[in-house]
Amino acid sequence: AYTAEPFVPARGGLAALRRAAAGCRGCPLHRDATQTVFGAGSADARVMLVGEQPGDQEDRQGTPFVGPAGRLLDRALAEAGLDPSEAYVTNAVKHFKFTRAEPRKRRIHKAPSLREMTACGPWLAAELAVVEPELIVVLGATAGKALLGSSFRVGEVRGTVLEREIHGRPERLVPTVHPSSVLRADDREGAYRGLVSDL
Ligand code: URA
Ligand code: SF4
């Protein structure tokens, strides 16, 4: 099975994890992506935000949530009274998965498979063990399935605090929609209000 497990160092902090993750070949997604996009933020962060996977901009820059979805997320966090610079932000999957309609054309995001999410899980588990956040904000369906299982439905639990055992540790989680879904929504303002309200 695909797994990041053999690439995850047994000890060390975020810097050691980030260094090791740069060389991860736990699943085929590393082949076409530019680089591993590991989580960003302080090991002391009280809130950890978990997205799906890096997008086009994140893949180029090597940092999560620096593209359009990230800008919207930062704005929503600030409006909800959370300092974006104090949160730890990461993704369920650490390489960008994409397709191209034609060779050399724009890269189009593809949702990661359950196998890829499972393969990448050991990195998220390692980040949780180091950061020990007081709260995990689950951004959308992929992060929800990766953390809470394949039956996760964001509409059923958004904005509520769940207490679950995640990778062997008791965690508190608040699911909400993914900021990219706000950008795609017909009622963008309403979707944005919903995200701020959940946060
Ligand atoms: N969407 C995500 O889920 N993560 C990112 O880092 C950027 C966009
Ligand atoms: Fe490793 Fe995750 Fe990248 Fe797959 S997506 S190669 S498991 S870091």
Automatic annotation (TrEMBL):
Gene Ontology biological-process annotations: DNA repair
Molecular function in Gene Ontology: 4 iron, 4 sulfur cluster binding; deaminated base DNA N-glycosylase activity; metal ion binding
Gene3D superfamilies: Uracil-DNA glycosylase-like domain (3.40.470.10)
Keyword NADP on entry: no
Listed InterPro entries: UDG_Type-4/5 (IPR051536), Ura-DNA_glyco_family4 (IPR005273), Uracil-DNA_glycosylase-like (IPR005122), Uracil-DNA_glycosylase-like_sf (IPR036895)
NCBIfam families hit by this protein: UDG_fam4, UDG_fam_dom
Family of the protein in this entry: Belongs to the uracil-DNA glycosylase (UDG) superfamily. Type 4 (UDGa) family.
The name this protein goes by in its record: Type-4 uracil-DNA glycosylase
Protein source organism: Streptomyces naganishii JCM 4654
